[in-house]
Design a protein that fits this description.
mainly alpha; 1 helix
Length: about 50
């Protein structure tokens, strides 16, 4: 992962900021359907993607 472009709570919507020591979610699946279902979880509704 590239810490200069990862989206975290400290760098929302790709803005400059501090990506370190911030909350982030990394989703890795081998199935697109599972990926889509995980992203539908209520806690991930506002999650930014890269």
């Amino acid at each position: 992962m590239n810490d200069l472009v990862i989206k975290t709570e400290g760098t929302q919507n790709g803005s400059s900021g501090n990506p370190f020591n911030q909350t982030t979610v990394i989703i890795i699946t081998a199935d697109k359907g599972i990926d889509q279902r995980i992203r539908l979880l209520p806690n991930l509704q506002e999650t930014q993607t890269i």
